[in-house]
Design goal:
single chain, alpha+beta, 7 strands, about 20% strand
Length: about 210
């Protein structure tokens, strides 16, 4: 009674995933490819950092569309060099978000606090209209698909933390990050006073 799109090439033309990924997903659904083979083909372990500009909607309302968009450019000008030089092996921007992948969650944490320091200084220079950011970090196995090459539970959690839960100048992390950095004296972690409704998370801070 209605069309179901089955062509991997046409599905890929809408820029969700690549044609081979769609082909393999359809093969999993039809039983021609096992889930374990799919994971073996696409899964890797990464620290995922999701940065979101705090107050972007408010700045659009109060200052106008173009000033708010210019604020995104300024944020990228300040933040991207820090991420680039901090060990990220992939960086992607989308609207007022930045996604970066690291092999080591330690590098993601170190970059996160440098980003907060740089943007705080930038805000002072811009009389309060500079770009502050909120950051979420996850760590674990994700799928090497899509524009960010990171889809899966830890990506979802990092996105939720960075975009929805963290406030300006906060870094929130998943339990996997805390476990991976156990014994590291450079950072401290504490659970929120009100536990997360969907999943547990921790506030991260620089020790000392």
């Amino acid at each position: 009674p209605f069309e179901v799109l089955e062509d991997p090439k046409e599905l890929a033309s809408y820029l969700g995933w690549s044609e081979p990924v769609y082909r393999d997903m359809l093969a999993v659904r039809s039983g021609k490819l096992s889930e374990s083979d799919f994971y073996a083909r696409y899964q890797w372990q990464k620290a995922v950092m999701v940065l979101d500009m705090a107050g972007f909607t408010r700045s659009t309302i109060e200052r106008g569309e173009l000033p708010a968009l210019l604020r995104i450019v300024e944020m990228q000008q300040v933040c991207l060099p820090v991420i680039r030089d901090g060990g990220a092996d992939l960086i992607r921007t989308f609207a007022d978000d930045v996604v970066a992948l690291f092999d080591d969650p330690y590098d993601a944490m170190r970059v996160a606090f440098e980003l907060h320091a740089r943007t705080a200084h930038f805000v002072e220079d811009q009389e309060g209209f500079g770009a502050r950011c909120s950051i979420g970090i996850g760590y674990g196995k994700v799928l090497r698909i899509g524009p960010n090459l990171a889809q899966g539970d830890e990506m979802n959690r990092a996105s939720k933390l960075g975009e929805d839960i963290a406030r300006a100048e906060e870094t929130l992390v998943t339990p996997n990050v805390v476990r991976a950095l156990e014994g590291c004296k450079e950072f401290s972690f504490c659970a929120p006073e009100v536990p997360g409704e969907l999943f547990p998370y921790f506030h991260a801070a620089e020790a000392g």
